Amino acid sequence: MAASPGFLKANEMHVAGFGDKSSLAMPPGKKGTHLGFKEGNAHVAGTQAESPKQAFPPRVPLKYTYHVNIFYSADAVRDIVISQRLLGTREIALFHHTGCGILQVNTPKMREIVKAAAPGDKQVAHLVDHLEFHEFSDVERSVKKDVEWLKAHPLLLKETVITGWVYEVETGKVRQIV
């Protein structure tokens, strides 16, 4: 049974208690990031069941992985391959979100910012000059592009169900795009 049909129902519960979360600090106060996947017992943009017991009924594991804006990287593919081969993942729900910081910059601008923070550091300059930030200007188009990229990737299982979603930071709602 696919996990994604329950997203909208679980999201309605999330939106009901969303409150003033749209005013959370941007950028976040903590300077960390999570690259990889979240397990089913984590709340995912308000799309999971309200408790881990709902997400994982006894002996009926939920098998899907959540990735966020980490595509086009070896780490993302590695995480998905591990999840598919070791955890039985057969469905990927890709989420992007409105208000994403990358909407405000592009690769040349990000390279400038990084180099300005490390003036004269040739190693930093060299590394950032070879780094693509995969900026985008249209969240929905980016979701579609990432879903296509995942579906075409030779290391992912061909039977994988891949859906694409947009999480609206302003309201807490999610919309299925693909």
From TrEMBL:
Co-factor binding details: Binds 1 zinc ion per subunit.
SUPFAM superfamilies found in the cross-reference section: beta-carbonic anhydrase, cab
Keyword Metal-binding annotated: yes
Family (UniProt): Belongs to the beta-class carbonic anhydrase family.
Keyword annotations from UniProtKB, A to Z: Metal-binding, Zinc
Binding-site residues, Zn(2+): H97, C100
Superkingdom of origin organism: Eukaryota
InterPro entries associated with the record: Carbonic_anhydrase, Carbonic_anhydrase_sf
Organism: Hericium alpestre
Name this protein carries in UniProt: Carbonic anhydrase
Cofactor: Zn(2+)
